[in-house]
Design brief:
- Keywords: Flavoprotein, FMN, Monooxygenase, Oxidoreductase.
- There is one protein chain.
- This protein has one domain: Luciferase-like domain (TIM Barrel, Alpha-Beta Barrel), CATH 3.20.20.30.
- Helix 1 crosses helix 10, helix 4 packs across helix 6 and helix 7 packs across helix 8.
- By secondary structure, the chain is α/β, with parallel strands linked by helices.
- The chain is 40% helix and 15% strand.
- The chain is globular.
């Protein structure tokens, strides 16, 4: 099982100084972390954010800073050597596919082939309105985005015709280092969404709210891979876990470790933790990193 570090909000551990976060990533990379990721939102409409807080227990306040993930990961790529780099998840459909393909190809080059990217469609129409992207049919647009990216990553000239955009005789270089950049979909568990993953993606990025019924979901996802003639054992299943809390609100590391190992036995190939969820200070991060990495060796 691979172990991941989610940098989202990690600047809070350094007095809000985002320039310290690549140093944390470098330390995690040196110690043996398998994956370094972050999250994504371009912004929020206040009323939509309030509704998300109320109905979904969204863990981030309206004034939480959301650094642009590809830019942040580019800084991380410069100071790391081995860990995979990704986003859990990037709202791919508020970005033009050609620009997104260029950004990811550049990141894969900078990191010498270490990108494993999660794509999603988000939940907030305001992000689509603000970027001039259509909110309707966004799931189909995400499939088109992946297909367009893969065309741009492997052919020059490239050509593609989708429902909302098209290009032909289009040269966009460089190609990524990897022959196939792994793409995971961060979607709710359903037969339709798992069909999408099996058709065009490489795995599932699992939100904590979608963990109930995980074992059945994994079985369904693997079944869809088989139905599309793909080896179900190749499906990457990346789980984002929050720590188990004691009654006093502190993180119970032993119980969290048991939870992580249970998800591994039930099909998770990677487990990702966000350090700020553990209530630790910066001076205790090395201890937390060592604990995280030890889980991958059990």
């Amino acid at each position: 099982m691979e172990i991941g570090l989610n940098l989202l909000g990690a600047e809070a551990l350094f007095g809000g100084d985002i320039s310290c976060v690549p140093g944390l990533a470098a330390e995690a990379d040196r110690r043996g972390i398998d994956l370094i990721s972050t999250g994504d939102h371009l912004g929020f409409a206040a009323d939509a954010h309030t509704q998300r807080l109320r109905e979904n227990n969204f863990p981030f306040p309206l004034d939480h800073p959301w650094y642009e993930p590809i830019s942040l990961l580019s800084a991380v790529a410069a100071v790391t050597e081995r860990a995979q780099l990704g986003v859990s998840v990037l709202i791919a459909t508020v970005r033009p596919a050609v620009l997104l393909a260029k950004q990811i190809a550049t990141l894969d080059r900078l990191s010498r082939g270490r990108v494993t990217m999660g794509f999603g469609v988000g939940w907030q129409e305001a992000e689509y309105t603000a970027t001039g992207m259509p909110f309707d049919a966004r799931f189909g647009r995400m499939e088109d985005t992946v297909r367009a990216c893969r065309e741009l990553w492997t052919h020059a000239p490239a050509q593609f015709t989708g429902r909302n955009f098209a290009f032909e005789n289009f040269h966009s270089l460089p190609f990524p280092v990897q022959e196939r950049v792994p793409i995971l979909f961060g979607l709710g568990p359903s037969p339709r969404n798992f069909d999408r993953i099996a058709r065009v993606a490489d795995g599932w990025s699992v939100n904590p709210t979608d963990l109930p019924g995980f074992t059945d979901s994994v079985a369904l996802l693997r079944d869809r891979f088989t139905a599309y003639g793909r080896d179900p054992g190749t499906a990457r299943i990346q789980v984002s876990l929050t720590p188990v809390q004691r009654p006093d609100g502190s993180a119970d590391l032993d119980a969290t470790a048991r939870s992580a190992q249970q998800f591994r036995r039930n099909g998770a190939t990677a487990v990702v933790f966000r350090p700020t969820a553990f209530g630790r200070t910066a001076d205790r991060l090395p201890e937390l990193l060592d604990w995280m990495i030890s889980l991958g060796h059990e």
